[in-house]
Write a structure and sequence with these properties.
The protein is α+β, with helices and mostly antiparallel strands and about 80 residues long. The protein contains 2 helices and 5 strands. Strand 3 and strand 4 form a beta hairpin.
Length: about 80
């Protein structure tokens, strides 16, 4: 696992998104590595960005909702929006 390579891949995928309305799912070990590097902080998010029902949630670089997905392998990640 090359942490800096994975971080660069995440940053590249973020930069290609047409909007900031997405999230990041990561495996458990990657979440720990990002947190230890200071890249995850608690940030206020609200319902549909309206300001309604504000919640403090973990955010990658303070901007993008990030969460640990138990189904992903330890260093896997997905940047995007859920499919229905």
């Amino acid at each position: 696992m090359d942490f800096f390579k994975i971080k660069a891949e995440i940053d590249t995928k973020i930069s290609t998104r047409p909007s900031n309305k997405f999230g990041i799912k990561v495996g458990g070990e990657l979440y720990k590595e990002l947190a230890n590097a200071g890249l995850i902080e608690m940030t206020e998010f609200s319902a549909y960005g309206t300001g309604a029902f504000p919640q403090m949630l973990p955010a990658y670089q303070g901007s993008y909702y990030i969460f640990h997905d138990w189904e992903l392998a330890d260093y896997d990640f997905i940047v995007g929006t859920p499919t229905s």
